[in-house]
Amino acid sequence: MKRLIALILSLSVLVLLHGCGEPSDNGSSDVSAVSSETQSTQSTQSTSDTVSMLTGKEKYMEELKKNEVFKQYDESDWRSHAYDYKLVALTFDDGPAFKAADDNNVTVRIVDTLLQYEGKGTFFFTGRSLAKNGFVVPQYALNNGFELANHSYNHASLKEADYETAVFEIVGVNDLYYENLEMTPTFFRGGGFTTGTNMWKVLAEQDMIAIASLRGGNGDHSGGSATVESLVDRLSPDKVSDGEIVCLHSTNTKGVTPDALAIVLPQLYEQGFRFCTVSELFAFKGVDLNEVPRGEYIKKVVITENGLIDFN
Ligand SMILES: [Zn+2]
Predict the structure, then answer these.
(1) pLDDT on residue 38
(2) Ligand 1: distance of its center to the CA of 23 in Å?
């Protein structure tokens, strides 16, 4: 089921009509107040031909460009005008890879390859891998602006999990992050995109957002059948689309994931794609995290022709 949420559209009409030019912080203003004010101005709208000729998406983009989020970056940084690019949130499950932060560590190679193309990504680490492999590699990713997220403690199916198990699988990982890196993740992805009644309950209690992917797992998990060639094909510029969340892995000991990224990232970059964290994807599309649906997996953040957001 598609869920569409109106964000800045009605506000942008109001701002353009009033000509005040005030930027919107996050587009999550009091919608009912905006709607009634917009209605009250409609009788005087006939002179605003320019406004009425814009499509919903064009109005959304006009308003998005004023968003404060872009102003924190230097002009030379593509993020200062991220709305001009096709954005992809590359996510990497199952790590961190083994302990040493050296050239052969798959997780580290993913970080370094993305940095070469001015990109960042999001790692969904499991609690058991964090406990086993330590925090040197996660700290390295964090220091380079990457985002760390929660992939459950044991990668177990949470379909039938009782409440205590769901708490351990989700909060247990949050606690590890907090104790070792002094951060708390916002995003969760169950192993195999698992769902369960108690999983959703605990996520709601923790105010966490579930993140999946538009096209499954791509087969590059440890022991999976993906090859460099198959990954390059799946991530080619004609197959990836703006606003997509892509699910890859950072534990394949053959290193197919960073090897494929080294080939395909320059192709995507050349075609106007840029690579961001999940948080950045929401922010750069003008979506406040409070507006993101809970209780379902988010697969993409796409601005529709009507100026709405399609999350799945
Ligand atoms: Zn996984």
Answers:
(1) 39
(2) 40
Q: What average pLDDT is seen over the chain?
A: 86
- Segments of the chain with pLDDT less than 50: 1-47
- How many whole angstroms from 151 Cα to the centroid of ligand 1? 7
Which token pair is 132? 């086993």
Output the pLDDT for position 57.
96
CA 150 / ligand 1 centre spacing (Å) = 10
Domain spans of the chain, in order of start: 4-66, 78-306
- Ligand 1 centroid–CA 100 distance in Å is 21
The alpha carbon of 191 and the centre of ligand 1 are apart by a number of angstroms equal to 4
Return the CATH fold of 78-306: TIM Barrel (3.20.20)
Q: What is the pTM of this model?
A: 0.83
**Do the Cβ atoms of 230 and 263 come closer than 8 Å?**
no
